[in-house]
Design brief:
It contains eight helices and no strands. By secondary structure, it is mainly α. The protein folds into two domains: 1-55, no CATH class; 68-235.
């Protein structure tokens, strides 16, 4: 291997010197150089020494290690940027979920007020009577679905909060590792990048459009909602 480095060095030295000769000839005139029949020995020796230093195992290894550091640093920084972007998107999605939650809660309170007004106006006291009233039956169905959406939004919000916390931890861990990139071996750096990729793929779907699937079997029945409203009335105004 060392013999190969030597031959490469000699080849580069002669090639560089010859190119220098051609350039100098074109600039100063080929005739003068042909007449003098001189070759720039000083430059050739300097060029040969310089290329020999670059081709030496220690310098070459140093440049190679430096290149690895730069590559690893850029790779980790790129992943940190991806984590930060995803975490911010999850935080924005959390706010959207909270806004929906508040909207459904407000809607349920208004519908309950409508049910009570109809109940007192029509003198309705039992669920059987309420089920025969089209407005109350419709309102109970609306509350039924809104309550189901609220439960799903709670689950989504918990998942988003967990994802935000995990990404924040991973972001800080990667920042620390970025400061220590020179003492990390390649396996440790690749393990960190792999871990980041897994977490990103885990929470990336949550940053996209929300999909809420309702299981009809888990919905509270209209009668249960009616009884809940009556219980709230005995304790105070419905909420």
């Amino acid at each position: 291997m060392r013999h190969l480095d030597l031959w490469i060095t000699l080849f580069l030295g002669f090639t560089g010197s010859f190119l220098y000769y051609l350039i100098a000839s074109s600039l100063d005139g080929f005739r003068r150089y042909k007449k003098e029949k001189k070759f720039d020995i000083v430059f050739f020796i300097f060029n040969l020494i310089f290329l020999s230093i670059l081709a030496s195992p220690s310098v070459y290894s140093g440049l190679k290690i430096k290149s690895v550091f730069w590559t690893t640093e850029k790779k980790i920084q790129k992943k940190i940027n991806e984590i930060t972007d995803l975490r911010q998107r999850l935080e924005q999605k959390q706010q959207e979920v909270q806004d929906l939650f508040d909207l459904y809660q407000t809607g349920i309170r208004k519908i309950k007020q409508e049910i009570l007004l109809e109940k007192y106006h029509r003198k309705i006291f039992t669920y059987e009577q309420a089920a025969q009233n089209s407005q109350i039956a419709y309102d109970l169905s609306l509350i039924q679905r809104k309550e189901a959406y609220i439960q799903k939004l709670k689950e989504i919000n918990l998942r988003l909060q967990k994802g935000t916390n995990e990404l924040l931890y991973l972001e800080r861990e990667a920042q620390d590792d970025l400061e220590m990139v020179k003492v990390l071996n390649s396996n440790e750096a690749e393990a960190l990048v792999t871990e980041i990729n897994k977490v990103i793929q885990k929470y990336l779907p949550d940053a996209e459009k929300l999909v809420i699937n309702i299981d009809e079997k888990t919905l509270p029945s209209p009668q249960q909602i009616w009884e809940q409203i009556q219980n709230e009335v005995t304790r105070g105004m419905p909420h």
